[in-house]
Amino acid sequence: MSFTKGEIFFLIGLFLFGLGIMLLIMQYLFPPFAPVHQTRRWQIESIDTMKYSRDNARADLTDPRFTVDANKQIADIAATGANYVAIDTPYDDEFLPVLDVWVQAARRYGLHIWFRGNFSGWEGWFGYSKIDEQTHISKIKQFISNNADLFRDGDIFSSCPECENGANLKPGDIQGVINHRNFLIQEYNTTKDAFKQINKNVASNYFSMNADIARAVMDKPTTQALDGIVVIDHYVLTPERYIDDIASISTMSGGKIVLGEFGAPIPDIHGNMNDDQQAQWLDRTLQLLSNETELIGVNYWTNKGGSTALWKLDGTPKPAVTVIKQYYQ
What we know:
329 residues; alpha/beta
């Protein structure tokens, strides 16, 4: 059978048209996989919202501007390239509506959440009566069970940040240190089991603490029982000091280090800094931290409010925001 030249061109065109339709269907049915992970300097690159998500929690219950403001803050944090946002809203029932707004905002902008709240009774926030260790363990188990929808795989949950504050722990109190170790281990086992019960892959071994407390509490057996993570909320004068402290605590504990809080200026430590000096300090700090192999996560404290803020109260970014973008992106 022979074909004319016109018929041949027609058949070729028909074939190409059909191939194009097939490719469109295949692309619809089997979309290309986007990369799940991008290369990051640290596993956790976070910015904290404590001055608003915790300190304003009660006022936000009746503030009509709250939802818009929370979404704006989260959007700004996401734009830095952060993969986590630290939300510090208390875990009491009273504050669940506030916590939910922050959580929904974080999900909207594609951020994992580092939950860094606590029950108000542990330290006596907002006039709550003090609670003891066993009450805390019981309440935290119930909180996770009752609020499974708050969590997503990949989140971090700190059940008791800077837990030593509510325990009034002193580094030289040997029996107190032993008791505190046992409490943290019991709390971790409880939260780990609670997340397993709700089928959520959430890390709950991030017990942030002052560096001096970490040196006293986080010996190798305790660190091993907490699955090898040591979280320090740490403010120091020079960036170089961070490197020394991270190395020494990692060696002593045998664990990987996370900076649960860091930033500048803290007036009692750094004195006063203008915005450019803050940016220079942050650039030098992040540059040095980038080379520290034992450091797996950083959480800048804080986004707005307080002397270390990255954004001014009106939402204007300081030069430090440009710096943090360079490292988080």
